[in-house]
TrEMBL record, chain A:
Belongs to the ABC transporter superfamily. PANTHER family: TEICHOIC ACIDS EXPORT ATP-BINDING PROTEIN TAGH. This is ABC transporter ATP-binding protein. Keywords: ATP-binding, Nucleotide-binding, Transport. SUPFAM superfamilies: P-loop containing nucleoside triphosphate hydrolases (SSF52540). The keyword Transmembrane helix does not apply.
From TrEMBL, chain B:
This is Transport permease protein. PROSITE patterns: ABC_TM2. Residues 50-286 form the ABC transmembrane type-2 domain. The lineage of its organism: Bacteria, Bacillati, Actinomycetota, Actinomycetes, Propionibacteriales. PANTHER family: INNER MEMBRANE TRANSPORT PERMEASE, TRANSPORT PERMEASE PROTEIN. Keywords: Cell inner membrane, Cell membrane, Membrane, Transmembrane, Transmembrane helix, Transport. The keyword Transmembrane applies. It comes from Nocardioides abyssi. Its main location: membrane.
Length: 266, 295
């Protein structure tokens, strides 16, 4: 077990020898399983999503977490925000955590936007008074108009992300996790998000930013961690990290610069 | 931006981010619990014109059916105020089966939240129990009105018996809901099995038939029947409401209520509390795999 006392007062996130396996189930029903067993096929298999990952983050650092699809970035964020626990190893965090994982917030599809704002805020640890105080500001940021009163199940993926992001940034958190937040937003919203995240970073909160867009990572982060098939492949300065994942291979024309910074698809 | 400008001192310990105290965490997050309960209640009558009135119509119609079919047509009403006798049982059975059924499905139903947000997952079965408890309210109103009509006057011991009955079902229902809500994530078969299981509950309690029947048929073994906490709870509610509604309460107590009912009741509550502890242990063991199995 990792001893929290072994770390300084400024340590924000500790990920110590963390591994996480998933069980891949090929068959779900009794019939399918029986058939598979008769034919001698595997019923299930384990898959190592994170393999002995170790790093620490100081308070106020902003980390760019990069890696190919399926390399374990979202899984790592789920361990950091406490949705999942590691199979082995230890995750420690200091203070309140907010953010978005795998683009969407944890919203209940049958509830309206308004109800979800309250519920989501409560799960993130906000009190009723705090939510009421910030409600107008949340709604203004999300800017989804009348849809606030309709079930979020009917939202477009952009609207869904906007509302989720709006709630997350209004939590008075010490650690902010942003997993591909810009992937589905339109251009004005992307710009607004970038500004907000820079504000978050400049206020001294720890930021973990997952993105495939090299430009936005360069703009936002002061350290890059690259995951490769669940292992830490690189941990260090931003430019080297981006070179490591080879995202800036194709030369970006100056007029594309802003697109890239706003995290448009690579 | 200088490093100094960014500095922020966080006055919190370095700790694992996942909630780990189970039901105790739930107690600490009452505002969230309130929101979950409130939304369940409003969801039930969403898009319905009569809305909350259904909470009254439903038990009333049941009361009427039992009175009419058993008490009137079949002539099964061997006991005084048979409809009240049945209704006392119905309240307990409903509370239990609703908690067990809805609680078992609760985590899967809220998978959108469980997959992405860190929160004590015990929250959901507990909320299901509280929603079911909330629906006891309208039934209790109807029962009280009918009983007052029959000349019932509340007595302290009876009210104690009623509170004990509710406590037994609340704890027992939460324990079972907790265990099965986790199991249901791995195999949805559990929800179906629980539905069938709860269909039998009404026959294992002295609701449709009076307790004397058990006493006569099984003699000494009637004691075993009283090891069923739900049967104890039904008898406790009957002690609270039905006994006082009959023409001769003293005779009813002597004839229909087991002598040591309160002792059995307290035993049932203690047993349920132990089961809740076991359920928490089982839940904690299964919990780690819940988020990844919900996709
Ligand atoms: N619940 C699950 N059950 C089984 N396998 C899973 C589960 N969740 C994730 N995985 C697997 O773990 C691996 C890592 O997934 P993860 O979502 O962390 O990737 P990622 O780095 O976020 O990818 P992307 O860039 O596409 O978002 C993937 O191969 C995925 O299939
Ligand atoms: Mg991802």
């Amino acid at each position: 077990m990792t001893d929290p006392a072994a770390y300084g007062a400024d340590t924000s996130i500790v990920v110590d020898h963390v591994s996480k396996d998933f069980t891949l189930r090929y068959h779900r029903t009794a019939k399918q399983m029986a058939v598979a067993m008769v034919k001698g096929r595997d019923i299930s298999d384990t898959f190592s999503a994170l393999d002995d990952v170790t790093f620490t983050v100081e308070q106020g650092e902003s980390i760019g977490l990069m890696g190919l699809n399926g390399s374990g970035k979202s899984t790592l964020l789920k361990l950091i925000n406490g949705v999942m626990k590691p199979d082995t190893g230890t995750v420690l965090t200091r203070g309140r955590i907010a953010g978005l994982i795998a683009t969407g917030a944890g919203f209940h599809p049958q509830l309206t936007g308004r109800e979800n704002v309250y519920l989501n805020a409560a799960i993130l640890g906000m009190t009723e008074a705090e939510t009421q105080r910030k409600f107008d500001s949340i709604v203004e940021f999300a800017d989804i108009g009348r849809f606030l009163e309709t079930p979020v199940g009917n939202y477009s993926s952009g609207m869904f992300a906007r509302l989720g992001f709006a709630v997350a940034i209004h939590v008075d958190s010490d650690i902010f996790l942003a997993d591909e937040v810009l992937a589905v937003g339109d251009r004005p919203f992307k710009r607004k998000c970038m500004e907000k995240m820079q504000e978050i970073r400049d206020s001294g909160r720890t930021l973990v930013y997952v993105s495939h867009a090299a430009g936005s990572v360069r703009k936002m982060c002061d350290r890059v961690i690259v995951l490769e098939k669940g292992r830490v492949g690189f941990d260090g300065p931003v430019d080297e990290g981006i070179r490591y994942v080879k995202y800036d291979e194709d030369n970006i024309k100056p007029e594309d610069q802003e697109d890239d910074e706003l995290g448009s698809d690579v | 931006m200088t490093e100094a400008g960014r500095h922020r001192l966080v006055d919190a310990p370095l700790a694992p981010p996942a909630p780990a105290a189970g039901l105790l965490d739930v107690l600490g997050r009452r505002y969230l619990l309130k929101l979950l309960v409130r939304r369940e209640i409003s969801a039930r009558y969403q898009g319905s014109f009569l809305g909350f009135i259904w909470s009254y119509i439903n038990p009333l119609s049941q009361l009427f059916i039992f009175w009419f079919v058993f008490g009137y047509i079949i002539g099964r009403g061997t006991v005084d105020k048979y409809a009240v006798h049945v209704f006392c049982g119905l309240i307990v059975v409903h509370f239990f089966t609703e908690t067990f059924n809805a609680g078992t499905r609760s985590i899967v139903r809220n998978k959108a939240l469980v997959r992405k947000m860190a929160m004590p997952k015990e929250m959901f079965p507990v909320a299901s129990m509280l929603v079911s408890l909330y629906h006891v309210g309208p039934q209790l109103v109807i029962l009280t009105v009918v009983c007052l009509f029959c000349g019932w006057v509340p007595d302290p011991l009876g009210m104690l018996a009623f509170a004990l009955a509710l406590a037994i079902i609340a704890v027992l229902g939460t324990a079972l809901a907790l265990m099965f809500s986790a199991a249901n994530v791995f195999f949805r078969d559990f929800a179906s099995a629980v539905t069938i299981l709860t269909n039998f509950v009404r026959f294992g309690v002295p609701m449709i038939y009076p307790y004397t029947l058990v006493d006569q048929r099984f003699g000494r073994f009637a004691e075993l029947y009283l090891f069923n906490p739900i049967a104890d709870a039904v008898l406790l509610v009957q002690r609270a409401f039905w006994v006082g509604s009959t023409d001769d309460p003293d005779a009813t107590i002597a004839e229909q209520i087991p002598d040591d009912l309160l002792v059995y009741g307290v035993g049932a509550l203690l047993g349920s509390i132990v089961l809740l502890g076991v359920a928490q242990l089982v839940f904690t063991r299964l919990e780690n795999k819940i988020p990844e199995r919900l996709s």
